[in-house]
Amino acid sequence: MAEARNIHLQQLCVRLQNYTEEVRRLFASYSPVQLNWKPHETSWSIAQCIDHIIISDQQYFKNIKKAIDQTITGALTEKKPYRPGCIARFSIYAQRPGFLLKFKTAPSFRPSARTEGKKILEDFILHEQELLVLIKKCDGWDINTIKLYSPANSHLKFSLGECFSILVTHQERHLHQARSVSQRVEFPKGIQA
Fold it and tell me: What pTM was computed for the model?
C-alpha cells in the first residue's frame, strides 16, 4: 500500500511503525514470566498493557469501519489540513505519557485474563497492520468532517482524524507504561525466551 499523502496521517503511520518495531525490539526476547510479571497486584504487566491497547482500539475499529463503509460511496475529499477540536485536543493531551491525571479504565477496555504474552505480542503486530490499513484507506478524505461516536463515551463524537490521533497517542501512553514495568528494579532479569 502506498504512503499516505496527508501529512497528519503520514506522521501517525510513522509513529505506528516505530511502535511496532519498538515492541519487537524490546519485548520479543522476553519470557512468558517477564511478559506477565506485575509490579503490584493492581498494576498491569507488559502483556496486559499491550492487550489493553488491542482491546481498546478494537472497540474504536468497529465505529471507524462503519464510518468508512458509510463514506466510501461518496468519499469527501480533503479540503483543509487536519485540525482537532477542543475536546479532542484535551483527549489527545490526556493520553500522553506522563499526564498527571489518571483515568479509571472502563471494564470493557480492561486487559483480558489471558496470559499468553507471546501471542499478545503477535496480535499487537497484526493489530498495528490493521490500523495502518484503516488510516491509509482514509488518505485523501476530509478526515475533519467524517464523524463517529466514541466507544468510551457515547456522548462524544470525534472526526476520523481525531480518532486516529487519540488511538496512536493512547498506544504511546501504554507502551511507555510497558517499558516502565520492564525498567523496575524488581523486574525478573535474565529469563529471556
Answer: 0.85
